[in-house]
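At your convenience, could you comment on the folded chain following this short note?
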Amino acid sequence: MTDGLRHKQQKDENFPVASFLFNKQNQDIVSAYYDYARCGDDIADDSSLPSAEKLERLKRLEDALLGKELAEPPETIVANRLRNVFLKENLSFSLATDLLTAFRQDAEGFHYETWGQLVNYCRHSAAPVGRFLLALHDENPSTYLPSNALCAALQIVNHIQDLKYDAKILKRVYIPDELFEQFKVKPDTLTRPQSSAGLKLLIAEMTNRVRGLLKDAEILPGIVKSRRLRMVICIIFSLTNIMVKKILKGDVLAQEIKLNKWDWLRATFSGVGRGLFIRRKTLTNKGL
């Protein structure tokens, strides 16, 4: 039996995804980045901490990354590891500090009135992850815009998965007021055992907008030069589309909707195949 709450664990994360496709060096770098992001997210999500303490710890996490923090709080370990990686690879610290902007919003309980505000949140909570992977593979900055759209799509899908958990445990709501009003749904319905007809329509609208973001991002695999990264991106597309279908078929309040091993296997095979096909198509167009 399940109460519909999706207890967040590392295995539930969609970032980083398919890291086995990266070489050993990049796997280590991605791991350092993930640990830093996980640390900041855990601070923001810690219900035992008051908002002021969360903000202070997030500041220490940022200061340690920038080399300003001399003390040795728990945050310093992951921050120093990532700092060394960024200095070695000549990566911009903004790829990590931008994440903290989103975590601060979470810590302060930011209230979303419009879809634009939610997408802007994703520009800090998810888009830096995509830009980090692109920068790590020395991709052209022209890839950043479609990457932002893909990352926003995946982030919003995660929000939909976690609607009940976020509302009941974290006292946090990522659905904008304008959608609540449009479908005549109250925020307090997010903690109920089952979704109302109105909430299902609202979620369908959100998934429709997610598909719009995926449409904006569909150019990305074709303009990425790294074959490994291109396959990872195609896997992310597949996983996101699978999850959207699962959300529409199920009830996010009544059950835990998540990816299973078959979903991962299916997405991996289709993503790798598509990634290889896109590369061959690009080479053919160039006459090579």
